[in-house]
Write a structure and sequence with these properties.
Blueprint: H1 12-15, E1 17-21, E2 26-34, E3 36-39, E4 42-50, E5 54-56, E6 61-68, E7 72-74, E8 77-78, E9 87-96, E10 101-113, E11 118-125
Parallel strand pairs: 1-3, 2-4, 3-5, 4-6, 5-7, 6-8, 6-9, 7-9, 8-10, 9-10, 10-11
Length: about 130
């Protein structure tokens, strides 16, 4: 019996990923972004991402309060060991890949994990918001 491998294909143009924190880059404080973010470096503080996903690349790290009005793809690290202050709220799907390591509190509309993902925190599923007709 053969197993079918799962994979994630990211297309920055189609996904509107227009912001980037490069490898070795460090950001601190409050960031409010229109358009997706490719995080290859580190951010500490408050992060709000609208109109695109947050992609935490392998080697990327995020600490603090994160709110994403779309999807999140975690290949890197969210929070740190014994971190009780990092929280990530995702209004779409939170994808934890095989290299993901997540601490703190995760709140998301939908949740997808892949073999190998490490979860060291609390997970809460959000209820969908119904729009008025």
């Amino acid at each position: 019996m053969s197993k079918r491998a799962s994979s994630i294909v990211l297309d920055p143009l189609v996904m509107n990923i227009v912001n980037r924190i490069a490898p070795g880059g460090r950001s601190r404080g409050t960031l409010e972004l229109a358009g997706g973010l490719l995080l290859q470096g580190e951010h500490r503080g408050v992060l709000s991402v609208k109109d695109g996903p947050l992609v935490i690349y392998q080697g990327g790290q995020i600490f603090g309060e994160v709110i994403v009005h779309g999807d999140v793809y975690v290949f890197g690290t969210v929070g740190a060991d014994a971190d009780e202050t990092t929280s990530i709220t995702v209004m779409g799907t939170m994808h934890l890949t095989s290299s993901a390591v997540v601490y703190g509190t995760m709140k998301c509309l939908k949740f997808a994990t892949y073999d190998g993902a490490q979860i060291h925190g609390k997970i809460e599923t959000l209820l969908p918001v119904l729009e008025a007709a």
